[in-house]
Amino acid sequence: MKKVNFRHSTSRKLLFSVAFLFTFSFFGLAQNDAAQDTTATEQAASGGDAAQAAAGSDLGDPAAGKELFNSLCAACHKPYSNSIGPALHGVTDRRDRDWLNSWIKNSAALIASGDEQANAIYNEWNQTAMPAFPQLSDSDIGDILAYVEQPKPEAPAATAGAEAGAEGTGGGGVSVNIILGILVFVLAALMLVLFLVNKTLRNFADASGIVIPEKPKTKPIYKAFVENQFLVLVSSVIVLLAVGYFAYGWMMQVGVDKGYQPIQPIHYSHRIHAGDNQIECKYCHSSARTSKHSGIPSLNVCMNCHKSIAEVAPETATEEYSKEFYDKEIAKLYDAVGWDPATRTYSGEEKPVKWVRIHNLPDLAYFNHSQHVSVAGIQCQECHGPIEEMEIVYQNAPLTMGWCINCHRETNVRIEGNEYYEKIHEELSKKYGVEELTAAQMGGIECGKCHY
């Protein structure tokens, strides 16, 4: 009988590879821990430096100054960029503190006194008068100056990304990538061991003269299926019904654009405007109150606010959209209307913005926004979904005839303070024997109401 050689060299290689992998993993973990300790030390040092700088400042409290700045100064000034007035960051280096107190409390008096600096600023900024703030004390002004002199904050998106990266590499000292790598290596080693064991057993059987029986060949399943006429008949019926069902469903989706989300030429975030800033929908879509269409706002509506807002707040940024991205979109708006934020003047060169329409009913269907918004008091979210949460707007509802009819059947007519419906509601409620009428009971599902 032949002897079967045992593969000692392969086993040694496997053990050596596992030992090397664990050694490398622990070395990597030690480096990560050292890097985290170094980062923590640097952050502590920088925090200490910032605290020392704040303690050594002769200005005031930045937190109190922020409240005063937002309530009194933000309409005309920004800390780091020009607006109606100049950027205020660094003003304590350019002007004397006593002069700043006099200018902020009563700039008109300082100009009238013939002060050269006051008149130079007044003429430089198109002789725009600055309101007087005699109610502010020197301490209040110090708080405002402390706020505007703070270093420009970094966008939080980068911080969030760094924190996410730290969690991915830290989190108890074990990297997720290292764990996954170890698991993959163990599985590969197991597969290799099984292969070697199987090969060794076969070699042992050959050497011992043992014949390994082969599995008998069975009839292929497709041949057995074809020979069974009952299964063929039942399967054919099921396939035909499934094809008819899915074909009908597909054809009924023709013209339905639920989920349609085009990219607009200028990125407009409803999340920021309608959500964070709580701007009412009808401020921009004003024609929804009185017209069939909600209307596309003209760019002068945008400039009502963005004439003074050339960049977004750092906390507005997300992991997907940075502050720089939003600022570039505002620059596209300025380019379209011909606005120069540096000189605060219009060039007169305007460019059309080719907005992509999202919600679009066929011409054979009549829909009046004013009837639903002004008369019925329907909120925009009923049809357009949570618009205040959408970064990029998409079509939330299918806007099919069945969807509209179901809404009319389920929605009661609001008659409180609505003289439009009082008389007809009184007559129809007696006819149907109900206290509240649905839109359908008032004729909301008649063909001629929408198809004329």
Secondary structure topology:
Blueprint: H1 8-56, H2 62-73, H3 91-94, H4 97-105, H5 107-112, H6 116-124, H7 138-148, H8 156-169, H9 176-208, H10 221-227, H11 229-252, H12 270-276, H13 281-284, H14 299-306, H15 323-337, E1 339-340, E2 345-346, H16 369-375, H17 381-384, H18 401-410, H19 419-432, H20 440-444, H21 447-450
Antiparallel strand pairs: 1-2
InterPro entries: Cyt_c-like_dom, Cyt_c-like_dom_sf, Cyt_c_III_dom, Multihaem_cyt_sf
Domain Cytochrome c: 60-152
Signal peptide: 1-30
What is the number of beta strands? 2
Round the mean pLDDT to the nearest integer and report it: 83
Structural class: mainly alpha
**Intertermini distance:** 98 Å
Q: What is the subunit organization of this protein? A: single chain
| Spatial strand sequence of the major β-sheet | 1-2
Biggest sheet, in brief? 2 strands, antiparallel
What is the string of SSEs from the N terminus onward?
Answer: HHHHHHHHHHHHHHHEEHHHHHH
Radius of gyration, in angstroms, nearest whole number:
37 Å
